[in-house]
Amino acid sequence: MSIILQERERARQRGPGTRLRLACLKYLAVLRASAASNVAYIAEVFFRALLLIALIFIIGQLWKTTFAQHGSLLPGFTVNSMVWYLAAAETLATSMPALTRRIDQEVRSGELAYLLGRPCSYILYNYAHYLGERLIRLALCALVAASVALIFVGPPHFSLPGVAAWPLMVLLAISIEFTCYFAIGLLAFWTENTQPFSFAFSRFVLVLGGVLAPIEIFPQPFRSIAQALPFSTILYGPSRILVGFEPGLFGALVLQQVITLIVAGLILVVLYAVASRRVSINGG
User: Fold this and answer.
1) CA dist 119 to 26, 61, 116, 181, 183, Å?
2) How far is CA 152 from CA 73, 213, 263, 283, in A?
């Protein structure tokens, strides 16, 4: 007991900066462990990434035929930029881990009650774990998609600002995705199965998120609706800025991503607080 009291006293004596640094190191260690675990099973991740070859080849052929018959469908877009947009969007879509299923299983098995006892935030722990897994998947899918696009249409015509802005937008996009899927996983406290919710959300992201082509290609008013919805912040935003950087569009998309992340984060925090009380009341 005296050792525990001494550790608590030392923790109180530490300044905010020290505590923040130690917390960052703790979650960084979780990220590294998650990344190392996925590297150990890199073959499984690689075979999943091979799906990108078929997707990019088939849809790329469609875009080649369409441009050959009708010319450019969007001002400033060519077959090259369309295929590279497809490669970027499919990379984000394909590299998503099965987060909702894991959270669902932890809730249903009662493992959540034990995980809450760890000296760290359950949400931040899962975020660090998710980032480690996602970064490995993202890097491998990007390598496969870029190789296919390079063979198919040649080198991309990216601008330096677009390449520099892409990592920031990808981080915001996958953070939004994590927040949404994590919240869906917590619905296991109230529903028999969360997979229908996860499936519906993923389909909305694919249909309204601009996975096959920039949202500008959609007819009105469907285009305005798709651009206003949060689904476009996950796939369309990062991919659009990468292949065609525009300062005004970049600012608007980043602002939309930040607002979406804040709103989704508040919903997740409230949902998690209610779920945590249910764990305490029911004893796990």
Assistant:
1) 10, 52, 8, 24, 21
2) 19, 17, 40, 57
Runs of H (alpha helix) within 154-235 = 160-186, 195-208, 222-228
Radius of gyration of the chain (CA): 21
Q: Quick one: which of 139, 148, 168 has its CA closest to 86?
A: 148
Q: Express each pLDDT in 147-156 by its tens digit.
A: 888 988 889 8
- Running DSSP on this structure, what letter comes out for residue 219? P
183 in a domain, yes or no?
A: yes
Residue 13 lies in a domain: no
Distance CA 194, CA 190 (A): 9
Q: Within 10 Å of residue 229's Cβ, how many Cβ atoms?
A: 16
Largest Cα separation within the chain, whole Å, is 80
- Report the number of distinct structural domains present in the chain: 1
Print burial letters for 37-57: b (CB count within 10 Å at least 16), e (below 16).
Answer: ebeeeeeebeeebeebeebbe
Higher pLDDT, 278 or 146: 146
How many other CB atoms sit within 10 Å of the CB of residue 14? 12
**Residue 10 within a domain:** no
Is 172 within 8 Å of 233 (Cβ atoms)? Answer: yes
- Looking at residue 233, what DSSP letter applies? G
- Residue 218 region, left (φ>0) first, then alpha (ψ -120 to 50), else beta? beta
Domain that holds residue 34: 25-282
Judge whether residue 95 has pLDDT over 60: yes
Give, as one character, the DSSP assignment of residue 55: H
Mean per-residue pLDDT over the chain, rounded: 80
Please report whether residue 38 resides in a domain: yes
Q: Are 208 and 231 in contact (CB under 8 A)?
A: yes
Instruction: Identify whether the C-beta of residue 238 lies closer than 8 Å to the C-beta of residue 170.
Output: yes
